[in-house]
From TrEMBL:
This is Membrane protein. The chain crosses the membrane at residues 6-27, 39-58, 70-92, 161-182. It comes from Plantactinospora endophytica. CDD domains: MPP_YkuE_C. Keywords: Hydrolase, Membrane, Metal-binding, Transmembrane, Transmembrane helix. InterPro entries: Calcineurin-like_PHP, Metallo-depent_PP-like, Metallophosphoesterase_sf.
Length: 433
């Protein structure tokens, strides 16, 4: 209970601070007090409430929040990044304007030079009987009128123009990036082909191919057609094995069973296999294990199977995701159960949803681990944060003597956006020495 409240409080605080910053840069700095500023403030407030409402509401079945909420989440992210990057040039521009104003001379209208006063003319004696002529009063000289520097008159207008220019640029750029990302995320996964040598692989098994896919994320923004397209792509690869490396669904069997049904049509020579990801444990993992087994996927729950192919043998093992144990159902990864007691002369390929499991795999002499989970970062530059949590974000690497391949995943989570990390199905070809 306290964990949920803590998460909700942190989410509300972070969301509020981000939207306060966006209001300052996009509304307050670009408008004068009045109706438009009030309209902008109300709009930002509504969007601030939409973000946590979407993250919480979609888990409660309010799927209509998904499209507007997740799209705004992506736009908000890129607005934040762009405006933060533009802070430095904006500050530099303001300093230049301020210095130019300070350097401008104070234009004060000069005092008029007094005209030379002619010498007094001696008065003639008055003619008898003529009244004296009155003297004309002196004309007062107007005081000098100082004028303000022209730069001071235009300073507020320049700041307003600068703020509006930055807001327009950030808004158009963020929207454009998100539009591109939506097209990429909803498009067909690309095929990545990678050859990985295994020192223990028998020569007779050279070229064994494993179609690897992860993070399909069947959910409120995708449906049966999404699954059918991925199955069709995998089947065209004509693979020997199919490995579905977790995060298949974002919902219960009752909600998404029909959308997952096309997985029964997966074709391979030696079988299709599945390991749980963290999202399975948010969606009823036990029911999904039964359902996937029913439609033909063999679920490797902390166990392994012997693959006999082309006159050789290979161990294919799988471990549960750590989320199983974290959520209190005592079904986390058990590497000893999956890998203990095997023939060490035989190569072993481990299916583990999270790349970070490679450290435990390496302690047990695993030759190759296939993983997903990272989505390749999904949204650049978010990939930088993913790299702080996982040893590899995307692609092939060797960790402590164990080879690791991380696929980008074929779906998406949260915003239907992929930037810099296209959806992917990987064909792993094992090569002997």
């Amino acid at each position: 209970m306290f964990g949920v409240l803590g998460f909700a409080g942190t989410l509300a605080l972070v969301t509020g601070l981000i939207h306060l910053y966006l209001w300052k840069r996009l509304v307050r700095d670009t408008t004068r007090p009045g109706r438009w500023r009030r309209i902008g403030g109300v709009t930002v407030l509504v969007l601030a409430l939409l973000t946590p409402a979407t993250l919480v509401g979609t888990r409660q079945g309010f799927y209509w929040l998904a499209w507007p909420g997740y799209l705004w989440l992506a736009v908000m992210f890129y607005l934040l990044v762009l405006l933060a990057v533009l802070e430095i040039p904006m500050l530099a521009t303001r300093l230049v304007l301020r210095r130019s104003r300070a350097a401008a001379p104070a234009a004060v209208r000069p005092e008029p030079t007094p005209a030379a006063t002619p010498p007094p003319v001696p008065a003639l004696p008055p003619t008898p009987g003529t009244p004296p002529t009155p003297a004309s009063p002196p004309v007062p000289t107007p005081p000098p009128v100082p004028t303000a520097p022209p730069e001071a008159d235009h300073e507020p207008g320049r700041r307003l123009l600068l703020a509006r220019g930055v807001a327009i640029f950030a808004g158009l750029t963020a929207t454009g990036i998100v539009g591109y990302g939506v097209r990429t995320a909803l498009g067909p996964p690309q095929i990545d082909r990678v050859r990985i040598p295994l020192a223990k692989l028998p020569r007779s098994m050279d070229g064994l191919r494993i179609a690897t896919v992860s993070d399909i994320h069947i959910g409120p923004l995708t449906g049966r057609a999404h699954t059918e397209r991925i199955v069709s792509i995998i089947n065209r690869l004509d693979a020997d094995l199919v490995a579905v490396v977790g995060d298949l669904v974002d919902g219960t069997v009752g909600e998404l069973g029909p959308a997952a049904a096309p997985l029964r049509d997966l074709r391979s020579r030696y079988g299709s296999f599945f390991v749980t990801g963290n999202h399975e444990y948010y969606s009823g993992a036990e029911e999904w294990v039964v359902e996937l087994d029913r439609i033909g996927l063999r679920v490797l729950q902390n166990r392994r199977e012997e693959i006999l192919a082309r006159g050789g043998a290979l161990d294919l093992a799988g471990v549960n995701d750590p989320a199983g144990e974290d959520l209190g159902n005592a079904a986390g990864p058990d590497f000893d159960a999956a890998l203990g007691g095997r023939d060490p002369s035989r190569p072993v390929v481990l299916l583990a949803h999270q790349p970070i499991n490679v450290y435990e795999a390496a302690k047990r002499g695993v030759d190759l681990q296939l993983s997903g989970h990272t989505h390749g970062g999904q949204i650049v530059p978010f990939s930088l944060l993913v790299g702080l949590q996982q040893p590899v974000v995307s692609g092939h690497a060797t960790i402590d003597g164990t080879q690791l391949y991380v696929t980008n995943g074929a779906g998406f989570w949260g915003p239907p956006v992929r930037v810099g990390a296209p959806p992917q199905v990987t064909l792993v070809e094992l090569r002997s020495p």
